[in-house]
Each structure stands twice: as structure tokens, then as C-alpha cells.
Amino acid sequence: MGRIVEHVNATQVEMDTPYREVVVMHTVRLGRTGLMVSAVGFGGIPIQRLSEAQAIEVVRGCIDLGVTFLDTATGYTTSEERIGRAISGRREGLVIATKSPARDGAGVRDHLALSLQRLRLETIDLFQFHNVSERADFDALFVSGGPFEVICHARDEGVVGHIGFTTHSMEMALRATASGHFETVMFPFNFITEEAADRLIPLALQNDVGFIAMKPMGGGMLEDATLAFKYLRQFSGVVPIVGIEQTTEMEQIVEVMTGPADLTAEEKACMAQLRAELGTRFCRRCDYCQPCPEDIPISTLMTLPSAIKRLPTDSLTNGWVGEAVEQAAHCADCGECELRCPYHLPIRQMMDEHVSVYHHAVGRYGASAAI
Ligand code: SF4
Ligand code: SF4
Asked: CB of 46 within 8 A of CB of 86?
């Protein structure tokens, strides 16, 4: 980190010594919700992997850095509970979003009650219908007594502030954005998944629908936060949410968001090179391809080349990478994962390719015998 980054409130600024550099992240209006949220939000997926104490520390650390928008989901196991503990006693000024995958009225009512309990809240600021990827799912939201009606009722009662929509399907995203029913839309957006820039973001702006960018780091495929977030800064009104495991990662992102906005020629060249290297055939680590009947860690294998580049030899031949490669041999070729992948990736073929790359890599390191 090149400089101290501190988020402080206005009172603290006045009381602060003038010698300390103070950087405050700007806020962005989240469409017609009218909510003003920090330019970067906190994504609640990775804290599931941490211990509870670590998770709470990370959430609080991000709030201390000026992050006011926190997103989670009923389906993210411990995430809601941990965020609930982390924000207990410091709710004011935060915008809390969660999601339900239920497609029937009773299911969504249960999820709302569960989310309120886990998050320890009386109101959820933004309640989103999670991963609506098919027309049938979209239509199911609007049946009489169905999910949309239940959440509209909850909004009338003040239990839900605003209603949003999340998807990986461009068709559904466009439909939801134009429908007039949703105040926000969440969709993958980063400099290697740029489809949203053509029609969806302009449509969202036109309809005053808040655009929340999921997967700002390409689902783990992008390692340079500076490039990833400087790219996103070029789009006004877009609010990325990022999943992190350490507060220092958010510090770096906040530094990018509060530093110079313009991309340098060198940064543009770097992005172009990465785009060319990755093409469109890459895994976003969303895990929608799961469950695999053979318990194959598909996203791990789909992103193996990135792990091979990043990890030391020992980590490649021992532990989770080696185990994942061994597990790949049990693929029953059923193809179920490919039917579920929202990006229509040829998973089996790519896993085979990546396992070959892996064997080549560990062979080069002289450790292939260990596999
Ligand atoms: S094709 Fe292989 S990896 Fe995909 S779900 Fe079937 S067993 Fe699992
Ligand atoms: S293979 Fe497809 S569904 Fe599975 S994690 Fe990757 S992008 Fe998601």
C-alpha cells in the first residue's frame, strides 16, 4: 500500500490532525432506490470460508474503510449470520442487501423471515430475487400470491426497503430491467465480461434501475485489483460488490477507488492482453454447476491454470489442488454440470485440458510422480 487510507466521518475529519492524509470513498446513488451507497460494496460469499471471528473482523474492517453496502444471500450458509453479528450495534448508515432463490410465495416468506433473524434486523434495505435465469422462473415470481407479491407486501409493511433482481442471464437481466418491477439489477461485469456495457447498463440508467456489478474480479480470474476497479470506475452509476477474505484487500480497492480515475496507456494495454489470453472461455467460479454427483470440485479444476501460475510447487502437488486433480478422474461424463453452467462452458473438455496442463506443469517441476 502506497499511502495511508482512512475513512473517517465528518466530525472526525474536523478533529483530525491536518497532517494525516484522509481518503473518503465517494457514494453512488443506487438507481431509484435513492439509496446512497459506497462506491464499492462488500460481497458476502468468501467469508463463509473463514472462521467466525475472522469473518466478523473482515466485515467490520471493511465498514471502517467506508464500505456502507453489504450484500449476502440466504444460500450463503453462514454469511448472513456472520454479517448480522458484525453489524450488530453499528447498523446506522449501512445498506444491507440479501437474496432468496425461492420461486414460490411461501418459500420467499420463509427466507425473508430467516434473513431478518440471521442478520438481526427489522428491515432489509434491498431484497433481491436470486439468480433468476429462466423465463419460467421469471414468470413464477409474478403468479398470484407468489414471491413478488409477498415481497411487495413486506415492502408496504416496511420490512423490506427495496426490491432487486439478480441473474447471470442477459435475457433475464434485460427483461427485469425493462419491466418496471425492480429497483436494482445485479449482473456480472468486469473487463473480461463486458457484455453488460452494450445494452444492459444503458437500459438500467435509462430506467433508473441501480446496477450492481457482481464478479468485479472476473470470479477470481483477475488478480490485479487496480486494473479491475479502475475499469469499473469508468462507468458512472455502477456499484461493484467484491468478495474478499482480508481487510487489506479492501484497503487496496478503496485506494483505487479514491485515486486517479483515468486508465493509463499501460493499464489499457495490460487489460487488452488479459482479454486476449482469456477469451470468453473462462470460469467465473459461481458454482452453479454444482452439485456434481461425483463430488468433483469443478470450479477448482476449471480455474486450474490460474492456480498453476500463482501457487508454489508444493501447493500444486499436495493439498487441495492435487486432490482436485485426482478427483477429476472420477468424472462420470453425465454432463449435468454443463446443463447448469450459465455460461454454457464445455466443462468436461476444459477440465480435461486443464488436467493436461497441470500434468505438464508438475512434470516440468519434476513432481509428476506424486500424482
Ligand atoms: S460431467 Fe463429470 S464433472 Fe460434470 S456433473 Fe457429471 S460427473 Fe460431475
Ligand atoms: S463452470 Fe460454469 S457454473 Fe461452474 S463455476 Fe464455472 S462458470 Fe460457474
From this structure: no
- The whole-angstrom separation of Cα 368 and Cα 366 is 6
Which ligand has the nearest atom to the CA of 328? 1
Domain chopping of the chain, boundaries: 10-262, 298-370
Predicted TM-score of the model (pTM): 0.79
CB atoms within 10 A of CB 235: 16
The answer to whether 41 touches 49, Cβ cutoff 8 Å, is no
pLDDT digits (tens, 9 = 90+) for 174-215: 999 999 999 999 999 999 889 899 999 999 999 999 999 998
Tens-digit pLDDT profile for residues 49-91: 789 999 999 999 999 999 999 999 998 889 999 999 999 999 9
- Residue 310's SS3 state is helix
Give yes or no for a cis peptide into 291 (omega within 30° of 0).
yes
Got the DSSP string for 170-216?
HHHHHHHHHHSS-SEEEEE-BTTB-GGGTTHHHHHHHTT-EEEEE-T
174 Cβ below 6 A of ligand 2: no
Pocket-testing residue among 289, 294, 352, ligand 1, by greatest number of atoms within 8 A of Cβ: 294
Q: Is 293 in the pocket of ligand 1 (CB under 6 A)?
A: yes
Q: Whose CA is nearest to atom 6 of ligand 2?
A: 283
Gyration radius (Cα) of the chain, Å = 21
Q: Report d(CA 109, CA 306) in Å as an integer.
A: 41
d(CA 54, CA 60): 10
**DSSP labels for 135-174?**
HHHHHHHTSTTSHHHHHHHHHHTTSEEEEEEE-S-HHHHH
Distance from the alpha carbon of residue 21 to the mean position of ligand 2, in angstroms: 42
Residue 96 bridge partners (DSSP): 70
* DSSP track, 266-289: HHHHHHHHHHHHHTT-------TT
Other beta carbons less than 10 A from residue 104's beta carbon: 15
CATH value of 10-262 in 3.90.1150.10, 3.20.20.100, 3.40.50.1370, 3.40.1400.10: 3.20.20.100
Q: Is the shortest distance between the CB of 298 and ligand 2 below 6 Å?
A: yes
Q: How far is residue 291 from each of residues 74, 76, 323, 338, 352, measured CA to CA in Å? A: 18, 15, 18, 11, 19
